[in-house]
Amino acid sequence: MTYNPTPHLRQHYLSLPGKTEAGWKNVMRDPYKFNRLWRHALRLELRDDPPPIDLRRIDLETGELHQEFMP
C-alpha cells in the first residue's frame, strides 16, 4: 500500500492553535513550510528539507511503517 502523508499532515496542521484552512493552502504552496510541518509532526528538528527517507513512510496517525510512500 502506498502511503500519502498529506491528509494526516493537514489534520495535524489544523489541530495546532490558530491554524486555518487558508493557512493550510499556503503550506501546500510552499515546499519549505510543508517540510517543516512534516518534520514537526514527526517530532524532528525543524528544517526546510524533507524528513529522512526512512521516516517518510511512518503513518502519522497510526505510527505504522509503510513499505512505500507517495512523495
Structural class: mainly alpha
Number of helices: 3
Please report the total strand number as a whole number: 2
Order of helices and strands: EHHHE
Strand content: 5-15%
The largest pleated sheet is described as:
2 strands, parallel
Neighbour order of strands in the largest sheet: 1-2
Alpha carbon gap, first and last residue: 14 Å
Mean pLDDT: 87
| Rg measurement, Å | 12 Å
Structurally, the number of domains stands at 1
Q: Quaternary state, please?
A: single chain
Specify the overall morphology. Answer: globular
Helix content: 40-55%
Low-confidence stretches: none
If you had to describe this structure to a student in words, what would you say it looks like?
The chain is mainly alpha-helical. The protein has one domain (2-69). Helix content is 42%, strand content 6%. The protein has 3 helices and 2 strands; from the N terminus they run βαααβ. It has helices at 6-15, 21-29, 31-41, and strands spanning 2-3, 68-69. The chain has a two-stranded parallel sheet. The mean pLDDT is 87.
Task: Provide tags for this entry.
2 strands, 3 helices, 71 residues, single chain, two-stranded parallel sheet, mainly alpha
Produce a short descriptive summary.
By secondary structure, the protein is mainly alpha-helical. The chain is built from 3 helices and 2 strands.
List the helices and strands and how they pair.
Elements: E1 2-3, H1 6-15, H2 21-29, H3 31-41, E2 68-69
Helix pairs in contact: 2-3
